[in-house]
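Thread: quick sanity check before group meeting

JM: Hey all, I'm pulling together slides for Thursday and realized we never actually wrote out the predicted structure for the chain we discussed last week. Dropping the sequence here so it's in one place. If anyone has concerns about the input, flag it before I start.
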Amino acid sequence: MPSLFILIFGLAGFVFGWFVYSKFIAEKIYRLDPNYETPAHRMNDGIDYVPTNKYVLWGAHFTAVAGAAPIVGPAIAVYWGWVPALLWVTLGSIFFAGVHDMGALWASTRHGARSIGALSESVIGKRARSLFMVVIFLLLLMVNAVFGSIIASEMVDFPTSVFPAWAAIPVAIAIGVLIRRNFNLLLISAIGVAILYFTIWVGSVWPLSLPEEIPVLGDNGSWIVILFIYAGIASMLPVWLLLQPRDYINGAQLVIGLLVLYSAVLITGPEITAPAFNQNLADGTPPLFPMLFVTIACGAISGFHGIVSSGTSSKQISNEKDARFVGYLGALGEGSLALITITAVTGSLYAATNADWSAIYPGYNQGPPASKFIEGGAELIAQGWGMSLTFSQTMLTVMVVLFAGTTMDAGLRLQRYIIQEWGDIYKLNPLKNNYISTLVAVASCLLLAFGASVEYPGDGGNRIWPIFGAGNQILASMTLLVVSIYIMKLKRNFLPTLIPMIFVIIVAFWASGLSLVTYFQQSNWLLVILSLAVMAASVVVMLEALSEISKIRKGEAKLEDDAVSSGSE
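JM (edit): ok, ran it. Output follows.
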């Protein structure tokens, strides 16, 4: 079957999602109000709260939430067969991810741009807030440690990506300054993207590695330390100076990269060589159900998106109606990345026969999945567009690195917010300080990355990857739960958020339970402790939520809502 079928099926679903389903959710369920004064205007401080053009914010949001996970997850999950992966990416993006992301953004905007964890206090209660924020912090810890390891590995394996990845930083700062001075957005976007692609060409002919005297921790470990130093500094800068423009221009570049990949499929017309349903699974392969739904998290639904939506994007949204464009369309953008990943690793340009594909995929999660996307996608681009294989590989490696890097930028900033919120809640004044809270965030990530190392210094992120998917989906279900209860209090139809929540929590806890047994058998006590912590905290939050739902049914629940107090609801 032609690979084009994967793209047609997925994109047709996304068109329905954007023009029909998202419009229904925005108008009938969330009831987005263009006249509501958003926190970006009401609390504008020029650092974190900054009213932002919706196109710039979409680029910042899209690249912050995408990361490497919508590449890694689908590249692993196709081992069960490309049909289950395609269905979950398509249906998940339409009915789960878009609703989740837009809902978290809307609910946070209506509550002073508080994070979804802090917001849970207003919607559910104080005990729920405390435990919810623990879950969020643990997930951010895992995200940052995992993506730090992924970026370091790609920079070591593909040194041609080093120059363009770091060159994006000064380009972004220049764009941020020009946007601040009201230069023409289209013009500076075109110039910025052109410069970035020029740096990719430079990188393809000028690979860079760390000098021999620097990597005392090994190449990977040294890159991880450098990355976290950068991310810590970036997280304290005003969002308009680096975070927004870097994410925006990276988003523009990455959209072009996706267009190149999609058009390469149209030009080459590769056949799908991977099995639709893999009947020859290696011994020890986990079951498709429920593991598919946590292996592909980002690209179908992701709890990390709710943290970004409520942690940074809600502080920058200029008009509440932009929540549909930023939140829902951002989720579809990530779904489109997952779609092309499935195509890149299953098409005939990557493996001439089914037998060859089986050799490349000898078992579940065998070999670096991001590299499989890079190699398969580069073959598509090289044959479709006539570009050199080295340039094509560099372009896709930079895509992976920039996606993961922008997620790290946002992740460290979000960790700082959580720590500062703890400082405010528990009257720990030192934690309110930007420098101290950032130092605590960076130190905790490095402690996990290096403290859990096995193969090389700093690979702790790779070790905890197995629990990232399940923990991510548990958080997504809890975010949908908070949004659902808020909608209940507003006396609106809560089924579009509650039904996805029930499905996700069932598969996430099921997968966590299966994984927990494996961790016990392997005596992997770090993963046992982290898994139990996330599951236990989530159970208590859900019990508190059930109590609040009971109060709503009895008419005893209170509605704390900025919209009501401002008179716009």
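AS: nice. The chain is about 75% helix and 0% strand. Residues 389-425 form the longest helix (37 residues).
JM: adding both to the slides.
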